[in-house]
Amino acid sequence: MARIVDTCKQGKARYQMGENNPWDFVHVANLVHACILSAERLLAASESAPLPIGQRVEGEAFNITNLERMTFWDFTLATAAAMGKPVKEEDIVKVPRIIALIVCFFSEWGVWLFSLGRKQSTMVREGVIFAFITRTLNTDKAVKVLGYQPVIGLKDGIQESVDWYMKQDKKNE
Question: How far is CA 27 from CA 13, 134, 151, 158, in A?
Answer without folding.
Answer: 21, 18, 9, 8
